[in-house]
Automatic annotation (TrEMBL):
Keyword Ribonucleoprotein: no
GO molecular function, one term: DNA binding
A Pfam family this chain is assigned to: GerE
Any single GO BP term: phosphorelay signal transduction system
Full protein name: DNA-binding NarL/FixJ family response regulator
Source species of the chain: Cellulomonas oligotrophica
Domain of life: Bacteria
Domain Response regulatory: 3-122
CDD domains cross-referenced by the UniProt entry: LuxR_C_like, REC_NarL-like
Domain HTH luxR-type: 149-214
């Protein structure tokens, strides 16, 4: 069972998300919060797998809350923060990515997409709405100065490089596997090794790295 905390300042939005999420027998809402500070307290009390986080809340935005939740978890993979927002190029989204969020979906996404995103984060993967993956991450990377070349890309094998480049295009493991004519398990293994070499926290941070270093381009 995947345990979920909902964070949104509008009670009606939380109620709607709860109904949509709990239609799935493998998902359970274990807490709600209406502000960033409340979210941190609820997460500490309930120990969820995934936090669905709004970022624009009068009682305290989700950026500081995301940063604190990520800091609290230390080296653990969970809880993961899924940013749920109205705007696909909202400044807050870039801040959330920088704060350590592992996923990003729009509030008007299909209910099944929300459930799939929650499951992906619970598995330790990252999830960005397919319709805006490249725009959001490329813009996020563009607004931060690129690091000095440090040879980090050279530590990747040709296969790992291909996989990271396709990942940056918004492909899933299955789609990458189909493109490279290999098994999805092979993609997962190569990607895991690439992330270890690069020191990236998750798939999303690996995509950001790819854009910032020029391996992937908008």
């Amino acid at each position: 069972m995947t345990r979920v905390v909902l964070v949104d300042d509008q009670a009606v939005v939380r109620a709607g998300f709860r109904v949509l999420i709990e239609e799935h027998p493998d998902l359970e809402v274990v807490g709600e919060a209406s502000s960033g500070p409340d979210a941190v307290a609820v997460v500490r009390r309930t120990h969820p797998d995934v936090v669905c986080m709004d970022v624009r809340m009068p009682g305290g935005d989700g950026l500081a809350a995301t940063r604190q939740i990520v800091a609290d978890r230390g080296e653990a993979d969970l809880p993961a923060v899924l940013v749920v927002t109205t705007f696909d190029l909202d400044e807050y989204v870039f801040g959330a990515l920088e704060a350590g969020a592992s996923g990003f979906v729009l509030k008007d996404c299909d209910p099944a997409e929300l459930a799939d995103a929650i499951r992906a984060l619970a598995r330790g993967e990252a999830m960005v709405d397919r319709s805006v993956t490249r725009r959001v991450v490329a813009e996020f990377a563009r607004r931060r100065p690129a690091p000095e070349p440090d040879g980090s890309a050279s530590v990747l094998t040709p296969r790992e490089t291909d996989i990271v480049r396709l990942l940056a295009q918004g492909m899933s493991n299955a789609e990458i596997a189909a493109a490279l004519v290999v098994e999805p398990s092979t993609v997962k293994s190569h990607l895991g090794r690439a992330m270890t070499k690069l020191g990236t926290r998750d798939r999303l941070q690996t995509v950001v790295w790819a854009y910032r270093t020029g391996l992937a381009r908008p």
